[in-house]
Amino acid sequence: AATRLDHVGIACRDLDASIEFYRSTYGFEVEHEEVNEEQGVREAMLRVNGADDGGATYLQLLEPTRPDSPVARFLERNGEGVHHIAFGTGDVVALAAGVGDRGVRVLDAEPRRGTAGSRIVFLHPKDCGGVLTELVQSAH
Ligand code: CMX
Ligand code: CO
């Protein structure tokens, strides 16, 4: 099962400006920043709150690093905005298999590397009511 909202992913054109908006408007602080070349993003995780299972909930601000990446294509089509949601789980392989058995297209046959060494799998938005959905198992 999925046990929490891990993050909401937001596509932006200028990561530093977006970080500053969320910091000055709401007081959210950056807990982690990295470049993920496989996903084609420069990203920042801003912690919103802790969660019952010891995890936390974040905003994930995403700036594309290359024009052929999913976030760059999204920005071209839609402009800045909410790009995906991510549910946290203790076992991403088991959850992805269960979701796949229900007929939802799982886009990653094997988990990929996500933020801070987490393991992530994406589900096709057309099978999830128009919502690009990520499943994430944190590294710790
Ligand atoms: N949310 C909802 N719908 C979306 C979407 C999104 N973010 N991105 C694309 N779609 C829709 C398109 O609008 C399109 O709809 P229509 O057919 O009605 O026009 C449909 O999905 C298929 O679009 P497509 O032309 O195949 O679009 P893409 O080539 O952009 O591929 C997707 C879409 C989801 C397969 C691709 O973006 C993907 O593999 N995403 C997963 C990886 C990712 O997003 N990485 C960045 C985040 C990394 C992280 O969180 O760490
Ligand atoms: Co994400």
What does this protein look like?
The chain has 140 residues and is α+β, with helices and mostly antiparallel strands. It has one domain (4-137): 2,3-Dihydroxybiphenyl 1,2-Dioxygenase, domain 1, CATH 3.10.180.10. 22% of the residues lie in helices and 39% in strands. The protein has helices at 15-26, 70-78, 92-101, and strands at 4-11, 30-36, 41-50, 56-64, 81-88, 112-113, 119-123, 133-137. Strands 2-3-4-1-5-8-7-6 form an 8-stranded mixed β-sheet. The mean pLDDT is 97. Residues 7, 9, 60, 84, 86, 134 line the site of cobalt (II) ion.
Tags for this model:
140 residues, alpha+beta, 2,3-Dihydroxybiphenyl 1,2-Dioxygenase, domain 1, 8-stranded mixed β-sheet, 3 helices, 22% helix, globular, binds carboxymethyldethia coenzyme *A, binds cobalt (II) ion
The tally of structural domains comes to: 1
Calculate the mean pLDDT score and round it.
97
CATH top level class name: Alpha Beta
Number of helices: 3
Roughly how many Å apart are the termini? 18 Å
Order of helices and strands: EHEEEHEHEEE
How is the secondary structure organized here?
Layout: E1 4-11, H1 15-26, E2 30-36, E3 41-50, E4 56-64, H2 70-78, E5 81-88, H3 92-101, E6 112-113, E7 119-123, E8 133-137
Parallel strand pairs: 1-4, 5-8
Antiparallel strand pairs: 1-5, 2-3, 3-4, 6-7, 7-8
